[in-house]
Amino acid sequence: xxxxxxxxxxxxxxxxxxxxxxxxxxxxxxxxxxxxxxxxxxxxxxxxxxxxxxxxxxxxxxxxxxxxxxxxxxxxxxxxxxxxxxxxxxxxxxxxxxxxxxxxxxxxxxxxxxxxxxxxxxxxxxxxxxxxxxxxxxxxxxxxxxxxxxxxxxxxxxxxxxxxxxxxxxxxxxxxxxxxxxxxxxxxxxxxxxxxxxxxxxxxxxxxxxxxxxxxxxxxxxxxxxxxxxxxxxxxxxxxxxxxxxxxxxxxxxxxxxxxxxxxxxxxxxxxxxxxxxxxxxxxxxxxxxxxxxxxxxxxxxxxxxxxxxxxxxxxxxxxxxxxxxxxxxxxxxxxxxxxxxxxxxxxxxxxxxxxxxxxxxxxxxxxxxxxxxxxxxxxxxxxxxxxxxxxxxxxxxxxxxxxxxxxxxxxxxxxxxxxxxxxxxxxxxxxxxxxxxxxxxxxxxxxxxxxxxxxxxxxxxxxxxxxxxxxxxxxxxxxxxxxxxxxxxxxxxxxxxxxxxxxxxxxxxxxxxxxxxxxxxxxxxxxxxxxxxxxxxxxxxxxxxxxxxxxxxxxxxxxxxxxxxxxxxxxxxxxxxxxxxxxxxxxxxxxxxxxxxxxxxxxxxxxxxxxxxxxxxxxxxxxx
Length: 625
Known about the structure:
By secondary structure, the protein is mostly helical. Among the domains are: 37 residues; 175 residues, no CATH class; 203 residues, Orthogonal Bundle (MetI-like fold), CATH 1.10.3720. It has 29 helices and four strands. The longest helix has 35 residues.
């Protein structure tokens, strides 16, 4: 009987009540869908925008936001790396302003410069190779190539590289710190794979060494702050700056009248920067050879230490800034630089090679300004056009980049589940075994209690129901001790034993079996059917609704089990989905957590959608009978 009769529905009051009911139902639906929409939206974000609450991430329709997203990806989620490259002072990627007065001419010139200048490999590095709590595309490609190189054999990888890694998931290639005085260039297959990725990367994804930004980061900001130039100008009255954006690092030592700046430049060259970026004038060649001869005495001793085959000290050449230095050669060169007069030293790097290339191509700064529409007053004021190159690349590839940024969390989740590790396989096998055994053991126990009217049946049912009164945590320690004594840790048997039977499900099944007609059993027995045949062909065949409920509850218990599998199977090769989710959340950011939860919820949603009609029958049939 309906609450509102057919006649009342036609009245204004009845229509108002019905409309009010639909309004509240719709409102309730929205309150359920809105948190889900927020989680779905959060799963396609990164650390730059994961705290925003808008349902549609801005980078999906805003070009400037997509550009900031690319900067976060390229500079490995490290805003200081972006600041050094762009000579900027931003505290987060979301605060980076859009590129103004974009000029494609700069991008074309930069492309020609990289192709013609043949810059050394230690002047740049690959972007997007490492993330803080997000796995960027290049890092994932690197991990996949390393796994393929070693045939997915983690033991071989550890043995041949000396790298300690429990799984492929945590494997990354540390971005080369070329400018660091302590950096040592690695060797072996890992470096080879990295260089292959570097060679195939788009020009816009290359992170260039900028010594201007490095000088500000190491010599200026720690001493004078970065908010204003007041403290810096007070210490450097001869070279005041209106803004740190105007700072220019000269390749030669400042004159003696700029005492503070000169002292900082010398300290930077002799103590901070890698000696591969410092060259000396040709007048020092003979002095360098004499220095080495005084250190080693004979050329054979030098060859032994350096690993070279020079015939005499006259064959030793000074580093020219185009070759990476390593080992004892770099150590000796560092010691020699301290003895060289500062006026004989010169910095080398991308910014000065870029300026020299432009000077050779255009001849004068006015010709360059006419070509690009710029307003530079001197070659020293022409910076690397990195922002122009990056912005044009983003505009030309905005669709692909948006898809990449939106899918990367899901790609990482799927990659970790299906490609590396055994989590997915363990979960499938475990859930299938739990459901199968529950559909066999629980119905057999309930059938015995229902069919044979055992003495003390209700006492048995009381004991079975009493097991539900104790929280599962109470039995964890005894179960753990028993399994450990039986040497069953990290095995499927340890995972399966507590899930084989359930007192509540036996009680539920017995009630359903009691409602089945006794005449069916009598007719089967008259026809000569065995008890096993009666059980499978009559009882189980007529109990599909309630068996669906049992199967769903068994699957849900197995799929969501966390604490017990974590205790008895802590080995990563035995992780189940819930344990993996916990470990993944410890290593991933909020957006990665959202993506992992959504992916992990797909099986339960699919099973419920397919089984909902049978579940409803399982609820209704016992009541009707």
